[in-house]
Design brief:
The protein is built from 14 helices and two strands, in the order ααααααααααααααββ. By secondary structure, it is mainly α. A two-stranded antiparallel ribbon has the order 1-2. Helix 1 crosses helix 9, helix 4 packs antiparallel against helix 5 and helix 9 crosses helix 12.
């Protein structure tokens, strides 16, 4: 999932940055995309203090004995310490434990514990392993929480940035001399995306077409976060990547991706693993926006209705004005997807909902 408000933990952004720094060349360990033998050791080094680190307070010049990698690890541990994180109590299992703990008790509306255990690969014990099986909805819910999405907001249903699906809907065929400008732009955009894929990731199709699609989403996320990536420190490896060294092409692709945040209500995509209260929160946001826009819309519609009813001629009644206001409000709300439930008044002056039509006799 894409964490658009916190790029540091966005899966597509971080994966894209990692492969951009170490492009796919076909010479990886046993053909694996990620290192398998040294990964745990490298992570452990991040949290394990250097043997001379205790002497730095008495003799700062000892830092010269640290190689560049050790100095970067030292800065990393200092940042953790400034945040109040006890790095000496962390290990490679901390990510797994922290993710499961956050999913289980990081909110009062978290995923069910069974889905968390099944996602983590933990046995439930006894007959539970037989009768409590993996289901997509719960597993997808856990995945969204583990990705760091804001659980109690409408943004929990967010979809990752992507290139418009319309780019790949039409089969362009070989180039022709009589192509329209629209087809030429489409062909240019497709070619630029493929060039960027190769420039950023080396051999994007080495691990198959399915993973190439993942890399295309990584590229879209890197384009979407152009402003944040451009502000990284000058010594950051990102600035040697293909996108960073081709700012014009980077900006072009950023415009193609656009600034639209897909909130799960999409004609092409449908967000999965989304709890009911997230959908209610999305509707409340729409209602809030509708109410904020209501005064301007109401003024415009009232002006039209008043002209239509002849208000300026002086032949309007109080009932007619009330009806105009109600129609204007209902129309303004309907434009934002909010439909007013009509009420009828009984003989006692109380409001009651209209009766449903009965079966035809």
């Amino acid at each position: 999932m894409a964490v658009l408000y916190c790029m540091q933990v966005c899966a597509f952004t971080t994966l894209g940055m990692m492969i951009a720094a170490q492009p796919i060349t076909g010479t990886r360990d046993n053909g694996h995309l990620l290192p398998t033998t040294t990964f745990k050791k490298e992570i452990d080094k991040l949290f394990k203090p250097h043997k001379l680190e205790k002497e730095l307070d008495q003799n700062p010049l000892i830092i010269e004995k640290f190689d560049p990698a050790d100095q970067r690890r030292l800065e990393f541990r200092k940042k953790l310490d400034s945040m109040g994180i006890a790095y000496d109590e962390m290990s490679t299992h901390s990510y797994r434990k922290g993710s499961a703990s956050n999913a289980a008790s990081g909110s009062t509306q978290g995923p069910p514990i069974v889905a968390i255990c099944l996602r983590a690969g933990w046995k439930l014990g006894g007959v539970l392993n037989t009768y409590l099986c993996l289901e997509n909805a719960g597993d997808q819910f856990v995945g969204r929480v583990a990705a760091g999405l804001p659980l109690l907001t409408n943004m929990f249903a967010v979809m990752p940035p992507r290139f418009p699906p319309s780019l790949y809907e039409e089969n362009l065929g070989p180039p022709a001399e009589t192509e329209s400008d629209e087809v030429k732009d489409l062909r240019k955009t497709r070619q630029l995306i493929e060039t960027a894929m190769t420039g950023m990731f080396g051999q994007p199709y080495l691990y198959g077409q399915s993973f190439a699609v993942v890399l295309r989403y990584c590229l879209a996320s890197l384009c979407y976060h152009k402003q944040w990536l451009s502000a990284l420190p000058p010594q950051h490896p990102w600035h040697t990547s293909w996108l960073a060294m081709n700012p014009n092409e980077w900006e072009y692709l950023r415009v193609v991706v656009g600034d639209i945040i897909h909130d799960g209500d999409d004609k092409v995509w449908r967000a999965s693993g989304v709890p009911p209260y997230t959908m209610l929160a999305r509707r409340l946001v729409k209602v809030e926006k509708c109410l904020l826009d209501l005064p301007d819309v109401l003024e415009e519609r009232m002006s039209v209705l008043m002209d239509k009813k002849g208000v300026r001629a002086g032949n309007v009644t109080e009932a007619m004005m009330t009806g105009c206001v109600k129609k204007a409000v209902a129309a303004a709300l309907a434009d934002h997807g909010v439909h007013v439930r009509q009420q009828v008044q009984n003989s006692e002056g109380l409001q009651r909902p209209p009766k449903k039509a009965g079966p035809a006799k």
